[in-house]
Design brief:
With 296 residues, the protein is an alpha+beta fold. A hairpin with a 4-residue loop joins strand 2 and strand 3. It is globular. The termini are far apart.
Length: 296
């Protein structure tokens, strides 16, 4: 067994211990049932995060827009007052149009004022560029959001240091996004995606990671990974010495080549979430993040 295989097994055991998978229901599911196939249906082939998991605290839902037209993204907290997300999530919106929702049911119509926090200020990376139409990429896709009031310290995550990374990473991809790459155009399905977002995760491997690169990516041709709504969410790695998870990336965009598209049934409608999912690399942007936090 290789060192990578051994590390991945340790990583899997750790996720189980921390309760990342769905918790026991009122009928008390046995542990062997937690990974039932019927539960593998979100963040593209992922598992639901237990309410008792640290990630239910550390991953934050963003509602963006107005009551008539809204979208969602995912974020993480770097301090009790500052959130990290993707620039494309908030570009073109006023801070008054963005709220952080601190609830396991973020679309609940009866959320309390303490569960909805207004964004007070936005800083978008000054070199952010959207070239998705021309080249299918986003550049410098990062933004910092200042909250109108602080959140609890247990919701805060730390950024990964370069020395905590290697060419091979075990990554926790996590967010409130779509449940499947296949697109169901029915009004019922679209309404369900919007009305009932839930936090899901999937474990992915990153090969060829470079700390000096602007981005890194995960292969999603197995129909697992990130999709619409996961944008801005964190990619976590685990540090055994620190006994904690650290943010190594921020979900940015999906890139699908012509060859990758041809692997799938052309008669099926999909939402362009196959191919490769790209993350903004936190170690590359660490100086920008830290210098701008102090300015918020």
């Amino acid at each position: 067994m290789s060192n990578n295989d051994t590390g991945f097994i340790k990583f899997l055991i750790l996720l189980l211990v921390l309760g990342l998978t769905s918790g026991l229901s009122a009928c008390q599911k046995q542990q062997s049932q937690i990974y039932h196939d019927n539960e593998a249906d979100s963040i593209l082939g992922g598992k639901q995060v237990s309410a008792s998991s640290i990630f239910s605290q550390r991953v934050i839902y963003l509602t963006i827009g107005t009551s008539k037209k809204s979208s969602l993204c995912t974020a993480s907290a770097l301090t009790p007052n500052i959130l990290l997300t993707a620039a494309h999530c908030v570009k073109g919106f006023a801070s008054s149009q963005i709220k952080a929702v601190l609830s396991a049911n973020p679309r609940d119509q009866n959320l309390s004022s303490s569960e909805q926090i207004q964004i007070e200020k936005i800083i978008i990376h000054e070199q952010y560029r959207d070239e998705t139409k021309q080249r299918g990429v986003l550049h410098h896709d990062l933004a910092l959001l200042k909250l109108a009031k602080p959140i609890a310290a247990q919701r805060v995550s730390r950024l990964a240091q370069a020395e905590q990374t290697s060419a091979f990473l075990n990554l926790v991809s996590i967010g409130y996004g779509k449940k499947t790459a296949l697109f169901d155009p029915s009004p019922e399905s679209i309404a369900m995606d919007k009305e009932s977002p839930q936090l899901y995760f999937v474990m992915k491997t990153v090969t060829g990671y470079k700390k000096e690169s602007e981005t890194f990516n995960i292969n999603q041709n197995d129909m697992t990974g990130v999709c619409s709504g996961d944008s801005g969410g964190p990619g976590f790695i685990y540090d055994e010495e620190a006994s904690d998870f650290f943010i190594v990336g921020v979900t940015s965009y999906i890139s699908v080549t012509k060859a990758e598209k041809e692997q799938f049934d052309p008669d099926e409608i999909y939402d362009k979430c196959i191919g490769h999912g790209y993350y903004s690399n936190v170690t590359f942007y660490r100086d920008w993040i830290e210098s701008n936090i102090s300015g918020l």
